[in-house]
Amino acid sequence: MNPEDIRHNWQILNQKIDMLDERTIALAQELTFTKAKTLQQRLCSRYRNQSLFGLLLPVLSPIIVWVGLPVWVAILYGFIGVCLAIIHLWFARFVDRTDFTAMPIVEAMAYAAKVLKMQMKIKRTGYLLGAIIAAPLLYEIWSLGQADLFISAVAGGVIGGFIGLHKQRVNNRIARQLVETLENDIRQ
Amino acid sequence: MSSKDSRQQRYMDFLQRYNRVVVKVCYIYASEQAPFDDLYQEVCINLWQGLDSFRGESSASTWIYRMAINTCITWLRRNKRHNMSLSLESAAEIPYTGEGEFDTERYRQFQLLLSRLEPLEKAVITLWLDEHSYDEISQITGLSKSNVAVRLHRIKEKLMKSGKDLAD
Fold first, then answer.
1. Could you state, in order of their start, the residue ranges of all structural domains in chain B?
2. Which of these ranges, A28-37, A167-176, B107-116, has the smallest mean pLDDT?
3. In Å, how far is A26's CA from the nearest CA of chain B?
4. 3-state secondary structure A69-90
5. A35 contacts in B (CB within 8 Å)?
6. What's the predicted TM-score (pTM) here?
7. Secondary structure of residue B94 in the 3-state scheme
């Protein structure tokens, strides 16, 4: 197909576009009433909501003392919850603040890849913080010598772990939907 | 007029002026797996949500091109269905009423060639065929001017070579 053909057929395409123009305006008008959220907003909401779980930990930390564990474990438990909440809120703000749809295309692609990478880092940080609190907590509970309490703690940890993993998978899926790296396109 | 009414008015004014750009971009990126209506709807939602954030740092045309193309590319990636063939039936559905000759088969080939381009390539060739300068293409895509020139050259070669293969 020579350049003349390309330009000629492009003109034909333009005339077909003119016909679509009229049809679509009516559709656009309906959308002004929509409450649809963009994917970006959904991802942001999820991380904001998840920060609330982090804030639950300091609220629950007195129970740790009540069952007979050292105060420092309760403080650590609460502190890690606050850290997790801050991280999630910060990430939600990061996603929300950037209007990637209006960026130059290449920047938008790079931003998309950055969001995904940051999500991976937050996941790893979450695992690390979880391990930092789980290890001393379980050790102290074991030291109490109460088998039922220990089993409950382990069961709670496993269930919590599964719930956390599921949420993480959903977040990842939304982020991947929102952001797929197009580095190949950029590098071509 | 309430602020919501004025926002709707602003949105509709904006869209009346630039709807053609949105329609064209969605049409270029549409495929069987990425229906035109879905792409158009997604762009309109993003436009509605993002209108307040447009502060005039770039021209409105530049902003709307970026938004439409980014939305379409994201939509394609989200659905992980990087379709390589346009729905040729739907491309021919819209009747041609213009002057000048219209070779249906040639037009279908042209649509097919366009659909085989990568998302960023589609953006570059669309802007170039719409007679945007290299500066403008660079502003919209974020590519450097020299990168735009190189890519454009490669895209044209690709179209000409693929066109020859199709004809054979």
1. 3-167
2. A28-37
3. 10
4. CCHHHHHHHHHHHHHHHHHHHH
5. none
6. 0.66
7. coil
Neighbouring CB atoms inside 10 A of A23's CB total: 12
- A108 — alpha (psi -120 to 50), left (phi > 0) or beta? alpha
User: How does DSSP assign A107-156, residue by residue?
Assistant: HHHHHHHHHHHHHHHHHHHHHHHHHHHHHHHHHHHHHHT-HHHHHHHHHH
- Reported ipTM: the value is 0.78
- Interface touch A1/B77, C-beta < 8 Å: no
In the block, tokens 């391990």 appear at A131
Measured distance CA(B65)–CA(B67) in Å, rounded: 5
AA identity, residue A24? T
Q: What is the pLDDT of residues A97-148, one digit of tens each?
A: 777 777 888 887 777 778 778 888 888 898 898 889 888 888 888 888 878 8
Output the CA angle B153-B154-B159, nearest 5 degrees: 100
A-contacting residues of B 80-139, CB under 8 Å?
A: 80, 94-98, 100, 102, 106-107, 109-111, 113, 118-121, 123, 129, 139
Residue A178 in contact with partner chain B when CB distance is under 8 A: yes
Q: Do A1 and B49 touch (CB under 8 A)?
A: no
Domain ranges of chain A: 1-36, 38-187
Asked whether the CA dihedral B32, B38, B42, B47 is positive or negative, the reply is positive
How many beta carbons lie within 10 A of that of residue B139, not counting itself?
A: 19
pLDDT tens for residues B116-132? 888 899 999 999 999 99
Amino acid identity at A60: L
Q: Which residue of A has its CA nearest to B151?
A: A188
| Cα Rg of chain A, angstroms | 25
For residue B42, list chain A residues with Cβ-Cβ distance below 8 A.
38
Do B52 and B6 form a contact (C-beta atoms < 8 A)? no
- Token readout for A179 is 């952001």
Measure in Å the smallest separation between the Cα of A1 and chain B Cα atoms. Answer: 5
* Closest CA–CA distance from residue A121 to any residue of chain B (Å): 21
